[in-house]
Amino acid sequence: MTQIGPDSECPTLEGADHLSQTQLLTRLTHVCRYDRLERPKRESINGTNGPVKVYARAYIYFMQNLEAHDLQFKIHALLQFRYVDPRLVFREVAPNRTKPIMGEQSLRDLLWVPHVFLANERSSDILGTAEKDILTSISPDGTVIVSTRISATLYCWMNLQKFPFDEQHCSTVLESWMYNEDDLVLLWEHKSPVTLAPELHLTEYVLLEMFTNETVINADLSDLRHGAFAGNYSSLSFTVHLAREMGFYMMDYFIPSIMLVAISWVTFWLQADQSAPRITLGTSTMLTFITLASAQGKTLPKVSYIKASEIWFLGCTGFIFGSLVEFAFVNTIWRRKRNVEVKKVNSKHVLKQAITPRPARKDMSGLHKSHSCTSLADSATTVSANSFNNYLTVHSIPQKSPSSATLPIISTTDVDRAMTEASNVTIQIEGQTSNVNGNGWTTMTPQEVAIWIDKRSRFVFPIAFVIFNIFYWTFVYYV
Questions:
Q1: Where is each Neurotransmitter-gated ion-channel ligand-binding domain found (predicted)?
Q2: Whole-structure pTM value
Q3: How many domains does the chain have?
Q4: 178-233 residue pLDDT tens
Q5: Rounded to 5 degrees, what are φ and ψ at 349?
Q6: Which CATH number covers residue 82?
Q7: Which residue range(s) make up the domain with 47?
Q8: How many helices (H) and strands (E) does the chain have?
Q9: Angle, vertex CA 229, rays to CA 227 and CA 234, nearest 5
Q10: Helix %, strand %, coil % for the chain, to 5?
């Protein structure tokens, strides 16, 4: 047994082939020849100490769907770091030992290992139950490989302007914590730096591509990114490019919203004076759509910019609200008492008269006073003894010829006297068989105007909604 005297504090490495792994490791890491607080020495070309090169590799076991409301995602991964520590070379002292020394947490605690942290980490843990999943190996040439299985929740700063047609780039960023670029450089392995498990599958997203990057992060005293130490720090990152799957949103939001907008158009087939069914249909459609839109908005963060989904819901809300306004408009017209005259039966003239109704044209402003008749002439009227008092108001319209400025000829007819024992009077104004007068103007009743607007709305609203869809989907997929 070798005696260690006061003049010889370091244990000898002779006969290392016959030592156990623990004995060999204990002698290699003895304080006389190994300080785990110092980084490995690496001589450069000019004879100075160069930075330690640490090669990294990642294997992704699991990736959780992005959580848009928290701007984060979760991964389970194996992180592996490889570097060379010349102080741990045992190839010369133990030429017959060809296999590496392997251990777990206890072996790692004896060695210098690079301190690499996740820059966009929210939380992380080392996987494992009683023993954490850490594997450390030392090769005869001094190559150290440290493998750790971790679970990490990482921030992903998503852009939701095109939600739910968005594509996201989410990165996992590794940075050196203690040593700057002059002392330590992080590099990706040349072969398969990042590998995804074959069984890895995302439900809401599809993976388009994945790429790695090596960069340098400048830290200064203003942001305290690396504590109180300023300098350039080596950094690695791998980014996944994800596209959101549209099936869920089409079935749960877009198709139901299109159906609700179409249901709101049913009011155009109901008569304008049917207030109860039209109000019930319009308000119930609006409330249902608001509930649908609010349910979708609860899953998203409150951002300052407008999203594509909000443009869709605002557009659909506008069409449903427009159908309610159209009903209020035609119902108001239906309840008017005066007829209107239009020069032509088209949208321009009918809507103009509907908004600002006039009983006659400007050159007909001088109307004669109304003549109220409480009885009919005996020579032109035949009524029963039980007839009711009839009140008839006839307006005299001035004619171009003075000789023709007479009252119209009015005749009354008693109908179904035996059935009702009451006089039903049918009034016919002779000479007025059409609503188009001699000057080419057309007289329309308020009911005719309301029905005319409803008929046009049956085509205008669907066509406008189709145009809105064309612009919307063009923006989504091509802008």
A1: 22-246
A2: 0.71
A3: 2
A4: 898 989 999 999 999 999 999 888 888 999 999 999 999 888 877 777 776 788 89
A5: -80, -40
A6: 2.70.170.10
A7: 16-244
A8: 9, 20
A9: 95
A10: 30, 25, 45
